Structures are given as structure tokens and as C-alpha cells.
Amino acid sequence: MGERFCYRCGISEEEGGPLIEGLCQVCYRKENPVLLISDEINTELCGNCGSYKKRGVWVDPKSYNLEELIFEVADSALLEALEDSLSERVKEFEVVSMEELEGVESLPVGKALVAFTPVSWHIEHFPAIVTYEVRVKARTHELQRELHDERKYVTVYVRQTVCPRCQKFLGGYFEAILQVRAEGRPLSEDERKAIGKLVEEKVDEIMRRDRMGFIQDTIEKEEGLDFYMGSTSSARKLAQAIRERFGGTISEAYELVGMDRQRSKETYRTSVSVRIPKFRRGDIVSDRAGNVYEVTAVDGKGISLRNLSTGRGEHRDWKTARRDGIDTVEHEESEAMVTSIGREEVQMMDMGNYQTYEVEKPPVELSEGEVYRMVEVRGRRYFLRRKSY
Fold first, then answer.
1. What 8-state DSSP symbol labels residue 123?
2. Which of 13, 210, 297, 316 has a 20 to 30 Å separation from 108 between CA atoms?
3. CA distance 269 to 231
4. Under a CB-based contact definition with an 8 Å cutoff, are residues 310 and 317 in contact?
5. Distance of alpha carbon 325 from alpha carbon 108, whole angstroms
6. What percent of the chain has pLDDT over 90?
7. What does the angle CA 141 – CA 146 – CA 150 come to, to the nearest 5 degrees?
8. What is the domain range of residue 205?
């Protein structure tokens, strides 16, 4: 069998190394480049929220510092273009530093190492321009003696735009209304603050996964709070979080608002309502059996009570509280001084009209001369607590 020659440059196999697909080592590398990226890349970032497209999907940035953000967007666009433009002979690639790449002399077949670094940039105004030096080493054939070692300068243009989410937000768009109310009463100031804080925390969490989970507007009403939400799923998640913290019930209603012409479908706006329980700490309530309680705590799991006859603490989950008929009860509060303590009765003097009366001695320690807050329910008086508490 005669000596073989490279069909491109004519060098003999003995001189030019083992032929690969009829080409000498040098011509094989020249004819089969691995770095096919174009000289210029265009990308965009949202001038309103800093998000940018990654594989066709808008993502939130890691940094909101403008300089860092521009390089983050440019790096991402360059890396994406590299992934899409390496030779199909490259089956896997890894990004390394320029220093690390410098020392690499061998690689498994089908593997490439990529390094890139910005060498010049103009980022004072948009479009921001970042030029990178890109270097790739790769091995694409088992007969290859030297690695592909290719270098290119690539310029990334970062242009400003407004992402679809911000277009909707800035246009006043909302998909759902989250209504927070209390049963049979307006929300208290403390509840409004606590709900507002909870919503703020949860929205930050939700927006990491749902970019449309923004609050378009918050309306304070006499009876409660309305949150105008960018997505129905975010309104539902917030409703669940509020119910978990405060208890209550969730309901939904739908309003036809128009037609989606692209999909020929009717579009609806959802109202998600959370109705938290009417009870608050300090409320006086009774059950069907006539027991009288002070509410000591309310949360998503249930209601904590202090039995005013026995002084003992009790807890009811919401289902049990409903079954037992726990409800607020008409009562009158007053202050009275203990004037004498008998075996079974305690003599009291009302601090409002100075009249004296007797009550059954409660199972708590009392002191003569102390003033106590009292509550009267259905003609019977109960001790609440010392006035100084």
C-alpha cells in the first residue's frame, strides 16, 4: 500500500501525522473548527426590573448593581451563544478560567474546554458593548495528536427594553383581586399591619417562581384590604398563607372581563376572598353550654380560651369551635375592689358607683384591697384580671 497524502495541502502522512478523513493533522483542525460563534451577539435587559432572557425565558438578575448587571447579562448571552455554536463533534463542554485552559494539553474525544474574558467595554449608556476574548480547546477525533486551540473576539451588545411583565405592570394590569376581610367586623389596625407584612414577605417568595406574582395596587377599605395581583395563582398562595396565620375561610368568585381573540376564549378576573374569624385576643365569648371564656390567642389552627369560671386554659381547633357554637357574647366590663374574702363568696365594691355586691369565689388567688377588671355576662359577674396587669 503506497504512502497517503493530505488531499488539501499534499503533505505526506509520515510528515503530517496520521490522516483523519483524508486530512493531515493541521488541515483536519482547520477544516473542522469547533468555535463557530458569530462575531456579534445582541441581547436585551429590562430597564425597569433588570430581568433578561435566558433560553427564551425572562429571568430575574443576581445583581441589581448596573455595572454588575450588564456583565451578568452579557456573560449569559455569550455562554448561551457558545452552547449553540460549538461544533456538533463536541459532545460536552466545560467553562474554565483562561489560566486553567492554558495548561491543558490532552482531552477525551468529544470534550471541549471554553474560557472567556472581557477585554474591552463601553457601558456608560445603552446599548452597552462588551468585547470578549473567547478561547476553546477540544479533541474531536481519536487520531488527533494536538488539540483544537481556537481563539476569537466576540462583541456583545446589551440593549434596553421593557419585559412583558413590566409592560403589564406599568399598564396597570391585574388578573385577580385578593380581598381580606374579618367575619362580622372591620379589620383592626394591628391585623392590617400584620397582614400587610405577611403579604410583603410572601410576594417576594412567590415572585422567585412566578414573575407575574406582583401586587399591582393595594386598596385600604373601611372593612378590609384589597390586593390587585398580577396572577391568580399568586392571589391563591397569599390567601392560603393568610389563612394559615389567622384562620378563616377562602372563597372565589369570577367575573367575565372580555375575550382573548388569539385563543377565542372568554377571559375572567378572579376574586379570591379570605375571611378571617371574628374573634380577637381579649374578646369575651361563650359556647352552647353557657360557659364564658376570654379569647387569649387566635391563629390558623384554632382559638385559645380561658374559662372565666375555672381559670383554666383551653384550645379548640376551628372545626370544634364551630361545633361547640363558640361566639361573641354581649357583656359589660367594669372595675371593682375586693373588700373581703369569705370561704365561698367574695365581697366587691364597684369602682364606678361604689355599690357593693357578692360573687362566687373563683379558683384563683385574690387579695383584699386590689382592684380587678370584671365582666358581666347574662347577669353573672366573672373576674378578668387585676387592673395593674
1. -
2. 13
3. 10
4. no
5. 75
6. 66
7. 90
8. 172-272
Q: Residue 33: is the preceding peptide bond cis (ω within 30°)?
A: no
Report the candidate in 170, 201, 132 with the shortest Cα–Cα distance to residue 46.
170
Task: Give the helix/strand (H/E) hosting 220.
Answer: strand 215-220
Q: Is 184 exposed, middle or buried (0-12, 13-18, 19+ CB in 10 A)?
A: exposed
Tell me the H-state helices in 247-305. none
Residues 53-89: tens digit of each pLDDT: 998 899 989 888 899 999 999 999 999 999 999 988 9
Which candidate, 62, 42, 60, 39, places its Cα nearest to that of 51?
Answer: 60
What is residue 12's DSSP assignment?
Answer: B
d(CA 84, CA 140): 17
Query: 98, 66, 75: which is closest to 156 by C-alpha?
Result: 75
On whether both 262 and 318 belong to a single domain, the answer is no
**Which residue, chain included where needed, has cell 388567688?**
365
Q: How far apart are CA 164 and CA 209, in angstroms?
A: 16
Question: Full-prediction pTM beyond 0.85?
Answer: no
Element (H, E) at 320: helix 318-323
Mean pLDDT of 89-118: 93
The answer for residues whose C-beta is within 8 angstroms of residue 63's C-beta and 6 or more apart is 69, 72
How many residues are recorded in the chain? 389
Element (H, E) at 241: helix 232-246
Residue 78 is placed in which grid cell? 455569550
160 and 89: one domain?
yes
The cell for 73 is 447579562
